[in-house]
Amino acid sequence: MKHACAALSLWAAIAVVLPSGSDQPRELRNLAYYEGPGAHPRKHKLDLFLPSASAGHPVLVFVHGGSWKRGDKDAYGGAYGAMGRSLATEGVAVAVINYRLTPEVRHPEHARDVARAVGWVHGNASRHGWDPGKIVLVGHSAGAHLCSLAALDPAYLEEHGLSPEVIGGVVAVSGVYDLTRTGVTGQLLYQDVFGTRNQQLQAASPALQVRSQPAPFLLLYAAQDYPTADYQTRRLENALAKSGGTVRSLEIADRNHVNIIAGLGRKGDPVREEIFRFLKGLFPSG
What we know:
By secondary structure, this protein is of the alpha/beta class. The chain has 10 helices and 8 strands. It has a single domain, classed as Alpha/Beta hydrolase fold, catalytic domain (Rossmann fold), CATH 3.40.50.1820. The model is unreliable at 1-9 and 11-22 (pLDDT under 50).
C-alpha cells in the first residue's frame, strides 16, 4: 500500500499539459541499448523523447530510483514518460533508461548498465540529433548514486572506449554517495546490493572515487528527505570541490524523497528551474 500511495502521488504531481500539433515531441520506445551476452529483454531498454524540430541539443540520461531493487522506466503510471515529453518540448532530448536490479544482479552491474546506456547515447547522437558533447546524467535516489559513480569512476565508461570527459554534467537528486558512512541501518538496507566488506563499500561510493577535474555537478535534496540526505550531499560536494570540480548543492523546500523528482515535469517548478539553470551554465550557446 505504501508504494501504491507513493506511485499515485508522484503521478499526480508530475502530470503536465503538453502543447498540441507540431510542437509535440517525438517518442521512440523500448530501444535496446545493450544486445550482447546476457542482455536482458526488458532492463537493457530505454525510451527516447526528442524535440520536434531542433538538432544539436543536450540529452539527459535519466536513471530512476528504487534502492537498486525496484523501479522501471514505465513505473508510476508513466510519470517518467510524461517528464520526458515535457522536457523535450523545451528543446532537450531525454533518454529514460532501465537497468538490472537486485537480487538478479549485484554491484557493480547496475552501474555497468548505466555506463552501457551512456555509451549507446554517445554513439547514436548523429542518428537522433543530439550533441554528443552535451550528455548530462540525471538520477534520483539510487539513480543519483549510479549516475555519480558512472561519471566519477573511469572504469565504467572505459569498458565502452569512453572517458569521463564525455559527461557534460551530472544532476544527482537525493542520492547516497558514501556507503561507508550509512551506519548500521544503511548497511542492513544495502548489504544484499553491495556486500558488507569496507573495500567493496569504498569502491561503490562516488564520494570516494573523485579524480581531478570531475564533471560539473548539481546536487539536490528535499527538506523532508531521508534522514542523512544533507550529510551525504555534503560528502560528495566536499570531495568534488577539493578535486577542483564545479559543484552546487541545494535543499528543495516542501518536498520529500519521493516527490522531489516530480518537479522535472512541471514548468516553473524549482527543481526544473535549477536544472535548466545548470544546463544553461554548461552549454551557454544552447
